[in-house]
Every structure is written in structure tokens, then in C-alpha cells.
Amino acid sequence: MSTSPVRQSRLPRDERRKQLLDAARHVFVEHGFHATSMDDIAVAAAVSKPVLYQHFPGKHELFLDLMDTQINLLESSVSAALESTPDNKERVLATIRAYFQFVDSPDRAYRLLFDSGLNNDPAVAARMEGLDHRFATGIAAIITADTTLAREEALLLGHGLAGLMRASARHWAGQSGEPARPALDTAADLAFRLAWRGIGRFPKER
């Protein structure tokens, strides 16, 4: 990459921050956290490094900001799917499809969550564990309300379903270069049928 960013006119602080985040997201997605430097991000954003450091104290903090945005997007989408219908079968399908739609975004920003290369980083690990736990808790609340299962039993099932969504969607997204990759609706339906064959064995009892 070039190390001589093109100078841009002064932008309002919020607009500049958004510009920097957009540029950083692109660079992190393309090259990963470890292969990306603040110089690379400054060049991509066409700003000087001092301008970049005015908004973010370092690469790690910038990455976490981007990660938080993607977590919020995924949570909002999945939460909306969980609340979209009282029919459990349709709700499970909608939730799994929402997960697949998230990883199908053209900007491939899902990689900031699932392919960061920072699995052992405490801040990243805490965010991912929190995300999985919140998904599992949301699913468990529905299971508990609909069945006679105890909360901890429902939470175990919730974690299982959350893990299934994450693993299947991540694998599907990673097949982007393969012409034989199933279409999104087909892939989501396959994951749904696997999940429903399990969760459907716990019918509503309340």
C-alpha cells in the first residue's frame, strides 16, 4: 500500500469518524487484524495518521469499535426474528435465516466476528461469549415459556441452537468461492431442518 494519503477537506467529527470506520472495516476484512496497520487504514481513508489517532487511540480500540457495530447488527436481526411470530417452527426458521443473511452481507463484515484471528484476546473473547450467551438466553426464555423444561435445561438447548447457527452460517459464508455452494434459502432451510428435528421434540406444554 502507498504511505502517502491524499489530503481531504475537513469534515465534521461524526462524518470523519464514520469515514474512518468504513475504511478500517474494508482493510480489516481484506487483510485481517494482524496484517493491518494504522498506516494502512490512514491510507485507505486518505487521511494522515495524526487525524486517525485523533479519533482512535490505537488499532485494537478501532477494531473493537467495528466489532461492536457488527454484534449490534446481528443481535438486532436475530432478536427481530425471534419476536416475529408466535409459531415456534416459523420462528426457528426466521432466526436461522437472519443469521445467514448477516453473513451474506456484501461487505463480508461478519469476518470481524468470526475470522478476526483474535480468539485469545480477552476483549474479543468476552464479546463473542457475551453474544453467544445472549442468543442462548433469548432462545431459552422461549423454550422455558413453552415447555416444562427447567431454565438450565432450556439454556443448554439455547446454547446448542446458537452454536448450530453460528457454525453452519460461518461454514456457508466461507464457501463463497465455490460454485456448488447452496443458495442462502437452501442453506438456511437445511440448518433449520436439523435444528427443528431436535427442538421440535420439545412441544409446547403451556
List keywords for this structure.
Tetracycline Repressor, domain 2; 2 domains; 9 helices; disordered N terminus; 206 residues; Arc Repressor Mutant, subunit A; mainly alpha
Describe the structure.
The chain is an all-alpha fold and 206 residues long. It has 2 domains: 13-56, Orthogonal Bundle (Arc Repressor Mutant, subunit A), CATH 1.10.10.60; 62-199, Tetracycline Repressor, domain 2 (Orthogonal Bundle). Helices cover 69% and strands 0% of the residues. Helix 4 (59-82) runs parallel beside helix 7, helix 5 (88-103) packs across helix 9 and helix 7 packs across helix 8 (151-173). The relative contact order is 0.11. Mean pLDDT is 88; it is low at 1-6. Pfam families: TetR_N (PF00440).
Protein topology:
Blueprint: H1 13-31, H2 38-45, H3 49-55, H4 59-82, H5 88-103, H6 111-114, H7 122-146, H8 151-173, H9 184-199
Helix pairs in contact: 1-2, 1-4, 4-5, 4-7, 5-8, 5-9, 7-8, 8-9
Give the gist of this structure.
It is built from nine helices and no strands. By secondary structure, the protein is mainly α.
Strand content bin:
under 5%
CATH superfamily of the largest domain: Tetracycline Repressor, domain 2
Structural class: mainly alpha
β-strand number:
0
Low-pLDDT residue spans: 1-6
The major beta sheet can be summarized as: none
DNA-binding region: 37-56
Domain HTH tetR-type: 14-74
Protein name: Helix-turn-helix domain-containing protein
Keywords: DNA-binding
